[in-house]
Please model this.
Amino acid sequence: MNTIICITLHCILANINVFVSVDGDMQERANILVTELFDTELIGEGALPSYEHAHMHLVQAGCEAVPHRATIYAQLVESDMLWKWSQLQPIEVDGNKLLPPPAVVKCAGAPSVCDIQLSQVPPESFTPLGPICTMFSVDFSKPVSSTAQSYMAQFKAQTSGRAQVVVSWWDIDMDPDGNIVCTMAPSWNYSDPRTYPVSSGKRSLY
Model:
C-alpha cells in the first residue's frame, strides 16, 4: 500500500502554515512524495527547505519522489544586448536625449538575475564562449539540504570574447529512469526535440 503526500507551491507563496505530522495526520510515513514547488529559477521559492522538512519528518527513507531529479545547466556568452540590461541607457524626452554621467556608464552594474524566456532571445544577439555546463543535479528522492552551497564548473573556451552574461536553464526527470523529461531548454538550442541530449526511448516535454 502506497502512502502519498503532496506539497504545492501555492501553500508556500500564500504563506499558509500547513502542519502535517505522522502521529496526527498520517498513520505512517509516506513512501511517495509528489511536489509542485518549482519556479523559473527551479529552487528559488523555498523548494529545498520543503524537501528537507519532508525527508526529515514525513517520508520514508528510499521513498519515490515525483518529480524525481532536477539538473541546472549554464553557458557563458558575450551579448551586448543582455549586458545593457544592467546599465543605464540614454533616453529621449520631448526630443531631447538624456545621457547618464560617464562614471555611471563605466559602471558594470550590480550582479542580477533576469527571469526571461530564453527561447525569445534571438541566437544572433549573443555569442557562446564555451560549451553548455552541467552545474549541479539534485535527486529529490533522497534527503536534501537547504544550507547555502556553491558549485564550480570548468570548461575550455570555444572562442574569444568578453565574458558578459551567464544564461541558464533547468530540466527535471519525472521518473527515476529519466524516461519523461520536462525541460526549460531554449528552442534555439534544441529546435528539434530529437536532438535533445537524452538516450533513445526518452520523451521530452517543453
